[in-house]
Amino acid sequence: MINVFHIVSNKVWGGAERYASDLVAHMRHDPNFYVEVVSAKHDDIIEQFQKMDIPVSILPLKGIRDFDSPVRLARMLKKGKNIVHVHTYRDALTAVMARIISDNPNTKVVFTPHGLKRPTLNYVSKKIYRSIDQYVFVSQFAYDYFLMHAPRISKQQSQVIPESVLNTDTSAHAQVPNLRGELKMSENQALIMFHSRLCRDKGLDVLLKSLTLIDRDSYKLVLLGDGQSKATSRIKSFIIENNLVENVKLLGFQRNVHEYLKQCDFGVQPSTIAEVQGISNLEYMKHGKPIITTNNGAQPEYVVDKENGLLVKPNNPEQLADAIKLLCSDMELRLKLGKQAKLDFETKLNYETFYNKITTLYNSLFD
């Protein structure tokens, strides 16, 4: 049996946390692995894993000046075959130090970088990067970006394993409103959905501007997610000032998001920053929903324009408006794109394929 420890230290739930959550949720039923989460003391994050009956150990996880966390983690790594899977450089530092202290040659460190933050390249960081046993990149785009800005790593030290999504909603039994009924929508109106952090990086400002160019009788838009109070206030002000109150509804963060996604006609995720994968896009595809997204990151690796979705340029409300108008007016096209999106997810991006590649990698580290 291999012991797998996922270190999760961020304060807020995001892509890295979702990646780890899906993986431990699936792995806890695999008799070949023991899985545990190591988290900083952030109650909202800890609660998510505890609801799945995942063991959680709490450490400070404060980075380079934190000597307590590596020592305490090392005690957990003294015996057996261990993998410490980390998702930030800060946690990679903790994991490498803990492995040294544990003096267990059967402890391996796996690093999955999320986001496009440039790696720090000082003497210490270079040693840490070289000490990592295996890098797992969620897309070719993520791999190319990392190699462009970080110390060169060998092909044997890295793999591209496209990310997938698993339905791990912990409150799927909770009642979900009938959105079309609640919003009093006509049969001719399209139900559009955006679910992510409510912030500029995810292109929400661009999306709202694009709506001012679209016939208000043709759609209703539902926003799922939360954000900082300043960002949320700005969004609400824009909606009021542009007479979009009847067309745009903010429903906040929803744990059982999949039950909402099933009800929409299509999703819009117009990120202005380059996405290393785009979890939200994959979730729409999983449910057979076409997606309008930007072409500035890994999205073109799995979204083929006019085949399973629509690709637009970032920060271009006019082009985004045209794409939304097209899907609002053409139900047949929506169904065609959605059908292909679901097929592509099931044949190329399904979770079993992802999981088999990850577990094969884990096992190979002890060959």
- Strand-pairing-aware structural class: alpha/beta
| Separation of the first and last Cα atoms | 14 Å
Oligomer: single chain
Fraction of residues in helix: 25-40%
Widest sheet, order of strands: 3-2-1-4-5-6-7
Number of β-strand runs: 13
Radius of gyration equals 21 Å
Count of alpha/pi helices: 14
* Strand residues, percent: 15-25%
Low-confidence stretches: none
Element-level helix/strand string: EHEHEHEHEHEHEHEHEHEHEHEEHHH
Bulk shape: elongated
Provide the descriptors you would attach to this structure in a database record.
alpha/beta, seven-stranded parallel beta sheet, 14 helices, 13 strands
Can you walk through the features of this model?
The chain has 367 residues and is an alpha/beta fold. It has helices at 15-27, 43-50, 68-76, 89-102, 123-131, 140-149, 179-182, 204-211, 229-241, 257-261, 279-286, 317-329, 331-348, 351-364, and strands spanning 2-8, 33-39, 56-58, 81-86, 107-111, 134-137, 158-160, 190-195, 219-224, 248-252, 266-269, 291-294, 309-312. The strands form two sheets. It has a seven-stranded parallel beta sheet with strand order 3-2-1-4-5-6-7, with helices on both faces. It has a six-stranded parallel beta sheet with strand order 10-9-8-11-12-13, sandwiched between helices. Strand 8 (190-195), helix 8 (204-211) and strand 9 form a beta-alpha-beta unit. Helix 8 (204-211) packs across helix 12 and helix 11 (279-286) crosses helix 13 (331-348). The longest helix has 18 residues, at 331-348. The chain is elongated, with a radius of gyration of 21 Å. It starts with a strand and ends with a helix. The model has no long low-confidence stretch (mean pLDDT 92).
